[in-house]
Amino acid sequence: QVQLVESGGGLVQPGGSLRLSCAASGSFFSHYNMAWYRQAPGKQRELVATITVTGSTNYADSVKGRFTISRDNAKNTLYLQMNSLKPEDTAVYYCNADDTRFWGQGTQVTVSS
User: Fold this and answer.
1) 29 CB contacts (<8 Å, ≥6 apart)?
2) Fewer CB within 10 Å, N- or C-terminus of the chain?
């Protein structure tokens, strides 16, 4: 019922910033809780941030204060603003909808000097 397409990943130096976007198709975006996950090489996929249908947000301790999740229901788009990036943020970042029901294909973020 929904397709998710991530964009905005790339190579950035430590301390830099990136903004990821997730464009969603379908008619029920505003009714879905949304989330960003990430998976680094050799590690399990981990939850980065969530945003509910009412706009309530939660963050992993490792990104709290540096990352901001937001949504624009009129544009069917989810965002992740990433500031003060660290090498340990390097991972493939995945958009998720409806409490793990739908997944995007991911976008690579590499933080390196």
Assistant:
1) 2, 73, 76, 97
2) C
Radius of gyration of the chain (CA): 13
Identify the three-state secondary structure at position 75.
helix
pLDDT confidence of residue 27? 83
User: Hunting for tokens 């991530």 — which residue is that?
Assistant: 6
Distance spanning both ends of the chain, measured CA to CA:
41
Residue pointed to by tokens 């397409």? 5
Neighbours of 36 (CB within 10 A): 26
Distance of CA 24 to the CA centre of its chain: 13
φ, ψ dihedrals at 88, nearest 5°: -70, -5
Q: CB 23: neighbour CB atoms within 10 A? A: 16
